[in-house]
C-alpha cells in the first residue's frame, strides 16, 4: 500500500530520464555519445590545498563543459578545494571523490550580492544537474560561531549590508533554484553555516545516500528544505543536525509528491516538519521506514499561513523524543499536528487525510493534535502504534506549544493525546504505556484530553493505556 506511490514516482522519474537520454543527442545534435565527458578541476589549476581559493579554476572547469552537458566535473582526492560560490549550469554534475572536500568560503565577499543567493554551491534555472561522487562539501560552520553557548551558539550575522536580518544572515550550503532533474547522491554534507540542502521551485529531485552532519548547537542548521518544489525522492539519508531535518515549505507555490524513505534522523528541533512557511498546499507525501532518535519533536505539521495539507502517510517509523533547552522549537512531542493562523492577517487552513501506521514512539511528552475553528484536522488515522511515555530530563514540561504565532506557549497539563478542532479521528490498535517511576520530574498520566465540543466523528478500536514497570520494559 505504502509502496505504490513510491514506485510509481520512481517509475515516472526513470522513464523521464530515459526519454531525456534518448532524446537529447537528437534534440541538441551536440554529440552522439550519451556518456558524460569528465573534466577535472586540477587540470584547470585548482590547488586543493585548502588555503588558496580555487574558485576561478572550479568555475572555469564548469564553464568548459559543453552546453547542456552531460558533463562531470571531478574534484580529485586527496584535496580540500576552498571556494567562493560555485555556479552550476545545465548538464553538469559535480563529482567530489571520496577523500576530497569542497570547502565553503567564510567571507562575505565569497558570496553574491543578494543574500537569497548565498550558497557554497548554487544551480539556478538549470536542468540535469547534481552533485555526488562519495566526497564531502563542508560549510565550515565553526568559523561562523561568535560565541559558544551551551544553550545555543551565537552566530555571525552578515546583516550589516541590510540584506537580511538578525542571526539568520549566513550562507546556506547547497541550493537548486528553479531546476529540473536534480540528483544529489552519495555525498557527505558537513557543517553548513545555516541551512544545508535547499531545493527551491524545482521539479524531479532525487536525494539519495546523503549524510548531513550539522552542528547540534547551531541555530537554523536545517538538513533538507524542500520549498515550492514537486516530485522529490529522499532515500537512505542520514541527518544529524541542530534544526529541522526534513522540512517542506511553501512560500510561492505548492509542494506535491514528496517521498522520504529508509532514513535516520537526529535533531534538536523537528525531524520531519511541514511548515511553518505554508502559504500554498502540501499534497501527496509518503514517509516510510525512518528512525528518529533523541529529537525535540518527531513528525510535525506547523501550518500557519493558509496552505491546505492532504494525503500524507507516515509508516514504519520509530521515534524517540526528549526535551532540550526551550530556546529550540519542540516540546518532545512524538507527533505534532497543528494548524492555526499565524497572526490576524493569516488565513485558516485544514489538514486532511493523514495516516500514521506502524509507529513506535518513546517520548517525554504526548501527541498534540490541534486544528483551529475554520481550519480543521480531518480524517486523521493512527493505526498500529506503541507509545511509551517516560520523563527523564529535568526540563520543565506542562506547556502546549502553538508557536510560531497563534496562542504561543500555553501553560497546561500534558496528556498522552491532546485533541482539539478535529473532524474524523480513528485510533486503532494503539498501546499507550506510562512510566510510574518515582524519580520522574513530573507525574502525568492523563491518556486522552479532548477540548469539549470541538472533536467529532471519533472512533477508538483496541486502544489501551496503562503503566509499565521495569519488569515490563518499554516497547
Ligand atoms: C559512492 O561513490 C564511491 C566513489 O565513486 C563509490 O565507491 C561508492 O560505491 C558510492 N556509494 C554509493 C552508495 O553509491
Ligand atoms: C544584525 O543582527 C544583530 C544580531 O541579531 C542585531 O543585534 C543587529 O541589530 C542587526 N543589525 C542590522 C543592521 O540589522
Ligand atoms: C508544482 O505543481 C503545482 C501543481 O501542478 C504547480 O502549480 C507548481 O507550479 C509546480 N511547481 C514546480 C516548481 O514545478
Ligand atoms: C504527482 O504524482 C502523480 C503520480 O503519482 C502525478 O500524476 C502528478 O502529476 C504529480 N504532480 C505534480 C504536480 O507533478
Ligand atoms: C529501513 O531503513 C534502513 C536504513 O535506515 C535499512 O537498513 C533497512 O533495510 C530498511 N528496511 C526496509 C524494510 O527497507
Ligand atoms: C484552503 O482551503 C480553503 C477551503 O477549501 C480554501 O478557501 C483556500 O483557498 C485553500 N487555500 C489555498 C492556499 O489554496
Ligand atoms: C526503536 O528505536 C529504539 C532506539 O531508539 C530501539 O531501542 C528499539 O528497539 C526500536 N524499536 C523498534 C520497534 O524498532
Ligand atoms: C507493538 O508491540 C506489540 C507487542 O506488544 C508488537 O506485537 C507490535 O508489533 C508492536 N507494534 C509496533 C508498530 O511496533
Ligand atoms: C505494518 O506492519 C505490518 C506488520 O509488520 C505489515 O504487515 C504491514 O505491511 C505494515 N504496513 C505498512 C503500511 O507498511
TrEMBL record:
The keyword Secreted applies. It holds the Pfam family Glyco_hydro_28. It comes from the Eukaryota. It is found in: Secreted, Cell wall. SUPFAM superfamilies: Pectin lyase-like. Transmembrane segments: none annotated. Residues 1-29 form the signal peptide. Keywords: Cell wall, Glycosidase, Hydrolase, Secreted, Signal. Belongs to the glycosyl hydrolase 28 family. This is Uncharacterized protein. It comes from Stylosanthes scabra.
Amino acid at each position: 500500500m505504502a509502496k505504490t506511490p513510491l514506485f510509481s514516482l520512481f517509475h515516472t522519474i526513470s522513464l523521464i530520464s530515459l526519454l531525456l537520454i534518448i532524446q537529447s543527442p537528437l534534440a541538441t545534435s551536440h554529440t552522439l555519445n550519451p556518456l558524460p565527458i569528465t573534466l577535472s578541476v586540477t587540470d584547470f589549476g585548482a590547488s586543493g590545498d585548502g588555503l588558496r581559493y580555487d574558485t576561478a579554476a572550479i568555475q572555469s572547469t564548469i564553464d568548459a563543459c559543453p552546453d547542456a552537458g552531460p558533463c562531470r566535473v571531478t574534484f580529485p582526492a586527496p584535496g580540500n578545494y576552498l571556494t567562493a560560490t560555485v555556479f552550476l549550469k545545465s548538464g553538469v554534475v559535480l563529482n567530489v571523490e571520496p577523500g576530497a572536500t569542497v570547502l565553503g568560503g567564510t567571507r562575505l565577499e565569497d558570496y553574491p550580492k543578494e543574500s537569497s543567493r548565498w550558497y557554497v554551491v548554487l544551480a539556478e534555472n538549470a536542468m540535469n544537474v547534481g552533485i555526488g561522487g562519495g566526497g564531502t562539501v563542508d560549510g565550515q560552520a565553526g568559523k561562523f560561531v561568535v560565541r559558544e553557548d551551551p544553550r545555543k551558539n551565537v552566530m555571525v550575522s552578515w546583516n550589516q549590508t541590510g540584506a537580511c536580518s538578525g542571526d539568520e544572515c549566513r550562507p546556506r550550503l547547497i541550493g537548486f533554484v528553479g531546476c529540473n532533474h536534480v540528483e544529489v547522491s552519495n555525498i557527505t554534507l558537513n557543517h553548513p553555516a545555516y541551512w544545508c540542502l535547499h531545493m527551491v521551485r524545482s521539479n524531479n529531485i532525487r536525494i539519495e545516500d546523503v549524510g548531513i552532519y550539522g552542528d547540534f548547537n547551531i541555530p537554523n542548521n536545517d538538513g533538507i528544505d524542500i520549498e515550492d518544489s514537486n516530485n522529490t525522492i529522499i532515500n537512505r539519508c542520514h541527518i544529524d543536525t541542530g534544526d529541522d531535518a526534513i522540512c517542506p515549505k511553501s512560500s510561492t507555490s505548492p509542494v506535491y509528491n514528496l517521498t522520504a524513505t529508509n532514513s535516520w534522523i537526529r535533531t534538536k528541533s523537528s525531524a520531519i516538519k511541514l511548515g511553518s512557511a505554508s502559504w500554498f498546499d502540501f499534497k501527496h507525501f509518503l514517509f516510510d521506514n525512518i528512525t528518529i532518535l533523541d529529537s525535540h519533536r518527531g513528525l510535525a505539521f506547523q501550518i500557519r499561513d493558509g496552505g491546505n495539507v492532504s494525503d500524507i502517510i507516515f509508516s514504519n517509523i520509530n521515534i524517540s523524543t526528549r526535551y532540550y533547552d526551550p530556546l529550540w522549537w519542540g516540546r518532545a512531542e512524538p507527533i505534532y499536528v497543528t494548524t492555526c493562523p499565524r497572526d490576524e492577517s493569516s488565513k485558516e487552513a485544514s489538514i486532511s487525510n493523514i495516516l500514521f501506521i506502524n509507529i513506535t514512539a518513546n517520548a517525554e511528552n504526548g501527541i498534540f493534535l490541534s486544528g483551529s475553528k475554520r481550519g480543521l484536522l480531518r480524517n486523521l488515522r493512527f493505526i498500529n502504534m506503541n507509545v511509551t511515555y517516560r520523563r527523564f530530563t529535568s526540563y520543565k514540561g506542562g506547556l502546549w506549544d502553538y508557536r510560531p504565532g497563534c496562542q504561543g506557549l500555553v501553560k497546561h497539563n500534558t496528556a498522552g493525546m491532546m485533541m482539539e478542532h478535529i473532524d474524523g479521528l480513528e485510533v486503532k490498535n494503539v498501546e499507550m504505556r506510562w512510566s510510574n517511576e518515582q524519580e520522574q520530574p513530573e507525574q502525568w498520566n492523563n491518556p486522552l484530553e479532548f477540548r469539549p465540543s470541538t472533536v467529532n466523528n471519533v472512533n477508538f478500536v483496541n486502544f489501551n493505556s496503562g503503566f509499565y514497570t521495569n519488569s515490563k520494559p518499554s516497547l
